[in-house]
Amino acid sequence: MVSPLSDFSQPVAAPARQPMADWALLDAYSNAVISASEKISPSVVKIEVAQAGRNRHGEQHERQGGGSGFVFTPDGLILTNSHVVHDATRIQVSFSDGRRFPAHTIGDDPATDLAVIRIDAPALVAAPLGDSQKLRVGQLAIAIGNPYGFQYTVTAGVVSALGRSLRSYSGRLIDDVIQTDASLNPGNSGGPLVTSDGRVVGVNTATIMGAQGLCFAIGINTAKFVAGRLLRDGRIRRAYIGVEAQTAPLHRRLVRFYDLPQESGVIVAAVTPSSPAQRAGLREADVIISFDGKAVAGVDDLHRLLTDARLGVSSSLSVLRWTDKLELQVVPEEAKS
């Protein structure tokens, strides 16, 4: 006789785990993009600007331009690109719900291609800001903006690479730039790059013409720093020493003789009269190899080291003059904008 409990004496095998269907994966992806877009949409703005210019006959006329931006404080502060609002005579901001407001520039920084503008408007929703240092390659990235004037357009892709460097239109190098394949077009400039949880991790800034899937955004951590300085001072203070220079290779014998960590330096093409460099004794054809004890392999290295922390501070400048290595003392001054 079989016991009625005998059916339960053997362990019951767990049902086999079925792989998630393709439609479910696609739905999860779609829901992530939808959720992030809906969360950030009240903060995204279209920016229209008018700039004074001259036509080919030298006559004054008003140029029209524009881009995107996003509200990052409830009192009406908006982050965008410097090249969108630089030298604007009139700025108009519009939201996806149809509201329009005039704006004015708080400050812009061409060297990082970032700007802060302000509007006076009620019931504003500030975009939540993330941490660009926590991004990972392959992470979902969503770009929102107004390409070619089309109001509120969403594109999605992934973070393709981190730690890129990008040349700003002022000539300086922007560090720690995010590369993404989320499609950007003219008009996207200044709009937010958003993660799947709806936090802004970058400010969309540029594409490479002729290249598909190479789009760039300035990390939000850089944007937070720049915005703070623009709000405090209206500009970013940077140091300068007063030289015209370019990157140049060093002779191998000099590299070996002085045990230099780099094989290039900054050759001085000209020294500005009455500048810190002239007072320090720097001459044309000198090659700068270090500043304040840090190796200088090129002009961009020198730019990175000339921060506002060096203003008025005596700093050591190592140079090669022909075959001699000299140590000069230079006191950087604030660069004139």
Alpha-carbon distance between the termini?
Answer: 98 Å
Q: What's the mean pLDDT score?
A: 89
> Strand portion, in percent?
35-45%
Oligomer: single chain
What's the SSE pattern?
HEEEHEEEEEEEEEHEEHEHEEHEEE
Helix share, percent: 10-25%
> Could you give a short account of the major beta sheet?
6 strands, antiparallel, barrel
Q: What is the count of helical runs?
A: 6
Shape, per Cα inertia axes: globular
Structural class determined from secondary elements = alpha+beta
Strands side by side in the biggest sheet: 1-2-3-6-5-4
- The beta-strand count equals 20
Global Rg: 27 Å
The low-pLDDT segments are 1-9
Overview of this structure, please?
This protein is of the alpha+beta class and 337 residues long. A six-stranded antiparallel barrel has the order 1-2-3-6-5-4. It has a six-stranded antiparallel beta barrel with strand order 7-8-9-12-11-10. Strands 14, 15, 16, 17, 18 and 19 form a six-stranded antiparallel β-sheet that branches. The protein has six helices and 20 strands. The chain is globular, with a radius of gyration of 27 Å. Strand 8 and strand 9 form a beta hairpin.
Summarize the topology.
Blueprint: H1 22-40, E1 44-54, E2 60-71, E3 77-80, H2 82-85, E4 88-95, E5 100-109, E6 114-119, E7 140-145, E8 153-167, E9 173-180, E10 192-194, E11 200-207, E12 215-219, H3 220-233, E13 239-240, E14 243-249, H4 252-257, E15 264-271, H5 276-280, E16 287-291, E17 294-295, H6 299-305, E18 315-321, E19 324-330, E20 333-334
Antiparallel strand pairs: 1-2, 1-4, 2-3, 3-6, 4-5, 5-6, 7-8, 7-10, 8-9, 9-12, 10-11, 11-12, 13-20, 14-15, 15-16, 16-17, 16-18, 18-19
